[in-house]
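Exam revision sheet. Question 4 asks you to relate a sequence to its structure. Input first:
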Amino acid sequence: MKNQVNGKTSSFITNKLLPVIMKFVNTKAVKALQDGMVYALPFIIIGSIFLILSNVPVPAIATALKNSGWSAFFTQAYTTTFGILSIWAAVGIAYVYVRNEGYEALPAALTSLSAFLMLQMLQVTAPLAGVMGKNGSGIANSAGNVVLSGNEISNHIDKLPGALQSFLESPVTGVINISWLSGQGMVAAIIVGIVVGWAYTKMIKAGWKITLPEQVPSSVANQFTAMIPSGVILISTMLIFALIKTTLNTDMLNLIYNSLAAPMQGLSDSLVGAILIAFLVSFFWFFGVHGGLIMGGIAGAFLIPNTASNAALYQAGKLSLNNGAHIVTNEFYNNFINLTGSGITIGLVIFTLVAAKSVQFKTIGKIELVPALFNINEPFLFGLPLVMNPFLAIPFFLVPVIVAISTYGVIYFGIVPPLNGVAAPWTTPAVISGFLIGGWKMALWQAVTLLISAIGYYPFAKKYDQYLYEEEQEKARNEGITI
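Answer key, structure tokens:
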């Protein structure tokens, strides 16, 4: 009876649930999101290096870099790489969408960039707004010491003529607000990239283009081909901006952030979100579908902005939960939920080294040892296998969930600091990646998660190994009788 129930459940998931999920995952928009974000990776990783250099965790070195001016140079480099993450998203997603449709993609990517910038008010809050008043930060000298408090600034400003006060407190206009170019504008950038890619290809397919004679060089002809679709998109964007500005006195990026991005980032940053992400990675893999690719593409849309937000706080020296730091970031996903591979399978590697008896377990374990150090575990997923293996299903599902819950807890309760926003490449070995993304405490905690994996997998691996061993012994006896 139990086998019948399990069979029906497996059949439902395989034949009913997974096809719906895969249909969604393989839509043009999701594929553009997954592949388009890849273009941002070099800037994220290189920018993370600049972030570390601008905030070296050794006080003597940090002071020397600050006094020499190099800290400011590294900050400039971080701001113009990692700090404009939304630009790479808007460009990359539109580019991939149109490229996948078989058309010249660069004009669409540039149109997406222009539309993304056009949808925001080109202004920033007056510098005085953040330093004035009781809650203002005040003005600090080069050493970081406050030389004029917020109240003192307000007292001085109050003595000025009203017109001058209004001028000093007015927003600075005619400038691009880089806050929207980082993680804060990511969801808007994704939406713009997808919509521009879709609209551009629809118009090209419908023949909305200027066709020049064959004698005209293709480099020139392609730009005229893009002129009508780009023109329609940009005029529509301008009208949308004008409508929102005149009726609501805000812009599209603010609307998207407050109504969609902030709530979704809050969900992804919750304990429930962490558990759901950890579970679904293994869930998809168990049925042979690339869980890391699916969840990385979907959840990454909200986790990467969390990383960018933490990076900004870290760069400003304000990284704490009280200042709005996020617990669940893209590095939480890469360097904990997927540590040593989907399912956190280092426990299986340890078992093969110290306790395995079956030839199959020992052989696959030797093959997996080196890849596991770099967070690759396909030899286990398909060679052991973990896919559709009832013996190892429980730890494969539960170990990542336990690690997600415990890691969330140690950050939430202040045992270890929040992740600093540094984007260590996903192939960075455990403990080393922990040090890069959170210092020595995070490296130590990563070592603890490896122990959790070893304990979690051991009894189930032992049972499966015994099953394989008995099968091998039975086969050897049968072959011996035959011989």
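Marking note for examiners. The mean pLDDT is 87.
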